């Protein structure tokens, strides 16, 4: 069976991680991998997570299976986090949520669901998007197409081209939109642009698939779901994939969710049986621990407040590093304007650095970024920002 199997090239980001690990340079800087790091370069376990785990250690009574759609408490808590209390979708029972292994698991179940209920539908993703979107949907057998998103000349959103492309998408197709902190560009639509996008998506009868992987990492828990709420106020049907990897720092616990929004409550109940079926056929049921941590935190007032504070600390550190990188480059009298970096949201920035410049940084300074020029702002800290700015200054000469 395996004698003539073709080797598949490994993931470029994983290769970058290995190259970084093997680099003996004591001043090397990792701006590649998409995880939060604190000012000492560590991806910490949040203190509130430690508290929730201590509570669970004392109080958990069983490791029995949880059903295919996971923890029954998690769904309502995540719905409220995204939509706010007493949202009509909740009170009218037009939303149902299944726990999944991470945001990636949610995207895969969404792909399987689309394939099961409307095999002709395509998924339209932004150009560029998180590269795994292509793999995940291809794995689910759903055709993926792209719409324009990034305006390289302005380092901004190509809103006119994006709206024009949405006008051409066939009715009934699915359009994936990043709720906030767009990966890889860091460029989010403004409130006014979200209004335009939502009106058009609804007019075209498209089904939005809202990828909500960074709630709280951009401007705040409420601010980061403006687009999501606007889309849901206009579109009768939608899919939402949630990741708790970043905002709870629970990367390796694999905790996320898929929410289904339907026009009527009875559609929701019926369609949710398809979600359960996709999950059963795939991994039977999700792991329990991450969901137990998130439900413990979100259902306790003090823990929730502590979580919001720790999340704010992560968000503010990223924003501070954005601002300091811009002023540090300005103080070196760089021949390029990088002020757009301070306007971008979340962990990532399309820095505008070319592939050659990225490779120069790697070869001469041990600074590792993705060849597209995407940098993880959370990889910058007070110790390495001076070296990084100097290196960028040299790379763009
Ligand atoms: N969606 C986007 C846009 C992401 O950037 C990521 C992770 O990087 C995910 C989904 C998946 O996150 P998870 O680690 O929870 O699977």
TrEMBL record:
One of its GO terms (molecular function) is L-aspartate:2-oxoglutarate aminotransferase activity. Its EC number is 2.6.1.-. Gene3D superfamilies: Aspartate Aminotransferase, domain 1, Type I PLP-dependent aspartate aminotransferase-like (Major domain). Keywords: Aminotransferase, Coiled coil, Pyridoxal phosphate, Transferase. Residues 27-392 form the Aminotransferase class I/classII large domain. InterPro entries: Aminotransferase_I/II_large, Asp_trans, NHTrfase_class1_PyrdxlP-BS, PyrdxlP-dep_Trfase, PyrdxlP-dep_Trfase_major, PyrdxlP-dep_Trfase_small. Residues 304-331 form a coiled coil. The keyword Coiled coil applies. GO terms for cellular component: cytosol. GO terms for biological process: L-phenylalanine biosynthetic process from chorismate via phenylpyruvate. Its cofactor is pyridoxal 5'-phosphate. It comes from the Bacteria. NCBIfam families: PRK09257.1. Belongs to the class-I pyridoxal-phosphate-dependent aminotransferase family. Homodimer. This is Aminotransferase. It comes from Oceanospirillum sediminis. The lineage of its organism: Bacteria, Pseudomonadati, Pseudomonadota, Gammaproteobacteria, Oceanospirillales.
């Amino acid at each position: 069976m395996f004698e003539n199997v073709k080797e598949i090239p490994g993931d470029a980001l994983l290769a970058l991680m290995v190259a970084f690990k093997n680099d003996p340079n004591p001043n090397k800087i990792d701006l590649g991998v998409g995880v939060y790091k604190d000012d000492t370069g560590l991806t910490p376990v949040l203190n509130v997570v430690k508290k929730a785990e201590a509570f669970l250690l004392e109080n958990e009574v069983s490791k029995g299976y949880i059903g295919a759609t996971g923890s029954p408490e998690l769904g309502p808590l995540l719905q409220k986090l995204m939509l706010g209390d007493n949202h009509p979708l909740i009170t009218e029972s037009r939303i149902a949520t299944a726990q999944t292994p991470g945001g990636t698991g949610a995207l895969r179940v969404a792909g399987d669901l689309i394939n099961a209920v409307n095999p002709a539908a395509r998924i339209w993703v932004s150009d560029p998007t998180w590269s795994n979107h292509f793999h995940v949907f291809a794995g689910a057998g759903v055709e993926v197409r792209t719409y324009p998103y990034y305006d390289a000349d302005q380092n901004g959103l190509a809103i006119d081209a994006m709206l024009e492309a949405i006008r051409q998408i066939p009715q009934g197709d699915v359009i994936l939109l990043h709720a906030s902190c767009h990966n890889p560009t860091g460029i989010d639509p403004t409130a006014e642009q979200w209004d335009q996008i939502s009106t058009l998506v609804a007019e075209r009868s498209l089904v939005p698939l809202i990828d909500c992987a960074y709630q709280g990492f951009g401007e705040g828990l409420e601010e980061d779901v403006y687009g999501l709420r606007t889309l849901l106020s206009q579109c009768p049907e939608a899919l939402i994939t949630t990741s708790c990897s970043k905002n709870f720092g629970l990367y390796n616990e694999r905790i996320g969710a898929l929410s289904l929004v339907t026009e009527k409550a009875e559609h929701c109940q019926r369609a949710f049986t398809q979600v359960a079926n996709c999950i059963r056929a795939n991994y039977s049921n999700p792991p329990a621990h991450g969901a137990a941590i998130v439900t413990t935190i979100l259902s306790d007032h003090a823990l929730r407040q502590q979580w919001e504070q720790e999340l704010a600390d992560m968000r503010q550190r990223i924003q501070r590093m954005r601002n300091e990188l811009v002023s540090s480059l300005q103080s070196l009298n760089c021949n390029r304007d990088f002020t757009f970096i301070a306007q971008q949201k979340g962990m990532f920035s399309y820095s505008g650095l070319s592939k050659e410049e990225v490779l120069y940084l790697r070869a001469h300074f041990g600074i590792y970024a993705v060849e597209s020029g995407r940098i993880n702002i959370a990889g910058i800290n007070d110790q390495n920002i001076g070296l990084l700015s100097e290196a960028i200054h040299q790379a763009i000469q």
